[in-house]
Design goal:
Number of domains: 1
CATH architecture: 3-Layer(aba) Sandwich
Helix content: 40-55%
Largest sheet: 9 strands, mixed
Distance between the termini: 32 Å
Number of helices: 20
Strand content: 5-15%
Number of strands: 11
Oligomer: single chain
CATH superfamily: EreA-like (biosynthetic domain)
Structural class: alpha/beta
Mean pLDDT: 92
Shape: globular
CATH class: Alpha Beta
Low-confidence stretches: 433-442
Radius of gyration: 22 Å
Length: 448
């Protein structure tokens, strides 16, 4: 039985929470709270829960239709995400959403190769197809940095088409990585100890040369040239940042985490700038894990020296950023027990006593939205730091307290929270997940 304090706070939350009932008007209050924000960051408490994907998709559809959002940015590799982007905008050879998602082959492929993403990507393609020819189509982009070798290949492919001499210079620079047989982890390990083995200067110089040729490359084919140059430039930027990430990975979790989240925040800014070259104000909706999108300053992470996307975006854009967290008490989740193992359908243990999830469970509301900016007793009580659960691509129930909980101040971490008490796992499109050994698994080594 919950103690009296938990019961009292849960009752206060229940009085001000907005129940979610699957009605079309469920998210009317959230749309009002978002207002004119240009960045809406939608989290998730796990990387494998159907309900989180489903509800993010429903919120995103309303943001696109009602508030003019122009892009969806997700915690996925940039080249794989851009293949989906080409599909939803009608400029690829892929004939279906499933085909467009085939780029996601590495562990954990189920994060994006699942039925919920198929449904959303299909909807986005249909939405774009119905727009008039002069209307800006909504894009789909990955913002992560694990695709170093794939991104090298995309930079070379672009330059071979527009500037063969520059392509040869790029090939010479990137040949620095050939000694490691496309093993990013081996590169990072050796380069972290041997400065002479580092390819840092080569990646920086390649990005700079590409940027110096912007005007020349953009004189070729109007809007198509702008999009393709952005794709090449971002891949070159990714290679530079990924090189730093893999070196820092062996110097400590804080360093590598910060490099990764700085890259994702930088990618959002670059994406915004690129989209606004089309002549209209752009708005982005972002899908990532709570641990990336909730302000790190309100958590143990921040106290340990880590920052994240939510914090960096708030610092850069202030009130133009709106952060939404998701929580669950129990249910099922798709996750692995160890790296590069097939996904399993796992039971999510009931949340630990006195955690935020446990407190929300005691409201006895199956689903609800809570405004964390509100000035009321419930939000004031929630400011006392509590445990919060985070399940990534790995879920180890046997060590749950150590592996999956941290302390946070929820009202400082997010602007609103959506609690779904009993959730179920996403349905992967593939029975097994094969890892491409040329790159590290997505979310490595943090699992988030």
């Amino acid at each position: 039985m919950p103690d009296t304090t938990v019961k009292t706070i849960a009752h206060a939350v229940r009085q001000v929470a907005h129940p979610l009932t699957d009605a079309a008007s469920d998210y009317d209050p959230l749309m009002d709270l978002i207002g004119d924000a240009r960045f809406v960051l939608l989290g998730e408490a796990t990387h494998g829960t159907h309900d989180f994907y489903e509800q993010r998709a429903e919120i995103t559809k309303r943001l696109i239709q009602e508030k003019g959002f122009t892009a969806v940015a997700v915690e996925a590799d940039f080249p794989d995400g851009y293949r989906v982007n080409r599909f939803v905008r009608g400029v690829s050879r892929d004939q279906s959403a499933e085909e467009a998602l085939r780029g996601f082959q590495r562990f954990p492929a189920w994060m994006w190769r699942n039925t919920d993403v198929i449904n959303f990507v299909s909807w986005l393609r249909q939405y774009n197809d119905a727009l008039s020819s002069n209307h800006q189509k909504v894009g789909f982009y990955g913002v992560d940095l694990y695709s170093m070798y794939a991104s090298i290949g995309e930079v070379l492919k672009y330059l071979e088409q527009v500037d063969p001499e520059a392509a040869q210079r790029a090939r010479d620079r990137y040949s620095c990585f050939e000694h490691f047989e496309e093993d990013s982890q081996e590169y990072g390990y050796i380069a972290s100890f041997d400065v002479d083995a580092s390819c840092q200067d080569e990646t920086v110089n390649q990005l700079l040369e590409l940027q110096q040729q912007t005007a020349k490359y953009l004189q070729q084919d109007g809007g198509v040239a702008i999009d393709e140059f952005f794709y090449a430039e971002q891949n070159a930027r990714l290679v530079k940042n990924a090189e730093e990430y893999y070196r820092s990975m062996f110097q400590g979790r804080v360093d590598s985490w910060n490099v990764r989240d700085r890259h994702m925040a930088e990618t959002l800014e670059q994406l915004m700038n690129h989209l606004e070259q089309q002549g209209t104000q752009s708005k982005l909706v972002v899908w990532e894990h709570n641990s990336h999108l909730g302000d790190a300053r309100a958590t143990d992470m921040g106290q340990g020296g880590e920052w994240n996307v939510g914090q960096l975006m708030r610092e850069r854009y202030g009130q133009a950023v709106f952060l939404v967290g998701f929580t669950t008490y129990t249910g099922t989740v798709t996750a692995a027990s160890n790296w590069d193992e097939p996904p399993q359908l796992k039971n999510v243990r009931p949340a630990l006593p006195d955690s935020y999830e446990d407190l929300f469970h005691n409201t006895e509301l199956p689903r609800f939205l809570l405004d964390l900016r509100a000035d009321n007793q419930a939000v004031a009580e929630l400011r006392q730091k509590r445990m919060e659960r985070a399940i990534g691509v790995i879920y180890r129930p046997e060590t749950e307290r150590l592996s999956h909980y941290f302390y946070a101040c929820l009202p400082d971490q997010f602007d609103a929270v959506i609690h779904i008490d009993d959730t179920r796992a996403v349905e992967p499109l593939d029975r097994t997940v094969h890892q491409n050994t040329s790159e590290l698994p997505e979310t490595f080594p943090s699992t988030l």
